[in-house]
Design brief:
The complex is a heterodimer of chains A (114) and B (112). Chain A has 114 residues and is mostly beta strands. In chain A, 0% of the residues lie in helices and 53% in strands. Chain A is built from no helices and 11 strands. In chain A, the strands form 2 sheets. In chain A, strands 2, 4, 5, 9, 10 and 11 form a 6-stranded mixed β-sheet that branches. In chain A, strands 1-3-8-7-6 form a 5-stranded antiparallel β-sheet, with no helix packed on it. With 112 residues, chain B is mostly beta strands. In chain B, a hairpin with a 2-residue loop joins strand 5 (44-52) and strand 6. Chain B is globular, with a radius of gyration of 13 Å. Classes of the chains: A mainly beta (114), B mainly beta (112).
């Protein structure tokens, strides 16, 4: 079983719509969770951390479901500039607390259409 | 604020040639440093990480090596490149004991 799984998409969404995608992880002892955004041929950039209580940053909402071992990302009022690949990232428990335990999903490709 | 610089942005190298990619971090001390590779259609793979000068941990057996000659400098090297070494190489840093990683702009390496 893959450690972090995402639907690769692409998700084609009209501008202004709401879009959501999930990510599942295999290790129930995972400690930290993140969403990164990666534009075509660019480096990944940290979008937001995912907390147990859920968190919101403007149009973006991230949630964690530990019982079912998935995290989600919701984008409201989508903009053309939201088009990118969204990487689900999980920090595995064997790490020393740094980023050496990060496991990246392959990403979900999102295309916002005018 | 912290910044990370990685160069070159693109590189085309013949099989069997050496490689040296450099990464430097500014605005922080004692960072953890990382080298990742992203191959087409695959997720990011951690190649090396370092918690201090001269301290390198390798995650996968490979044709590459890493060195950390200074606190904020991380170098990825190879003596002889293989075709399979082609990919997008990313340097990253994190604060000590923090999982959030921040990436450099990456080097797109094509071995021909």
């Amino acid at each position: 079983r893959k450690e972090v799984e995402q639907d690769p998409g692409p998700f084609n969404v009209p501008e202004g719509a709401t879009v959501a995608f999930n990510c599942t992880y295999s290790n129930s002892a995972s400690q930290s969770f993140f969403w990164y955004r990666q534009d075509c041929r660019k480096e990944p950039k940290l979008l937001m951390s995912v907390y147990s209580s859920g968190n919101e940053d403007g149009r973006f909402t991230a949630q964690l479901n530990r019982a079912s071992q998935y995290i989600s990302l919701l984008i409201r009022d989508s903009k053309l500039s939201d088009s990118a690949t969204y990487l689900c990232v999980v920090n595995m428990p064997y790490s020393g607390g740094g980023a050496d335990g990060l496991t990246f999903g392959k990403g979900t490709h999102l295309i916002i259409q005018p | 604020s912290q910044t990370i610089h990685q160069w070159p942005a693109t590189l085309v190298q013949p099989v069997g040639s050496p490689l040296s990619l450099e990464c430097t971090v500014e605005g922080t001390s004692n960072p953890n440093l990382y080298w990742y590779r992203q191959a087409a259609g695959r997720g990011l793979q951690l190649l090396f990480y370092s918690v201090g000068i001269g301290q390198i941990s390798s995650e996968v057996p490979q044709n590459l090596s890493a060195s950390r000659p200074q606190d904020r400098q991380f170098i990825l090297s190879s003596k002889k490149l293989l075709l399979s070494d082609s990919g997008f190489y990313l340097c990253a840093w994190s604060r000590r004991n923090r999982p959030e990683a921040f990436f450099g702009q990456g080097t797109r390496l094509t071995v021909v």
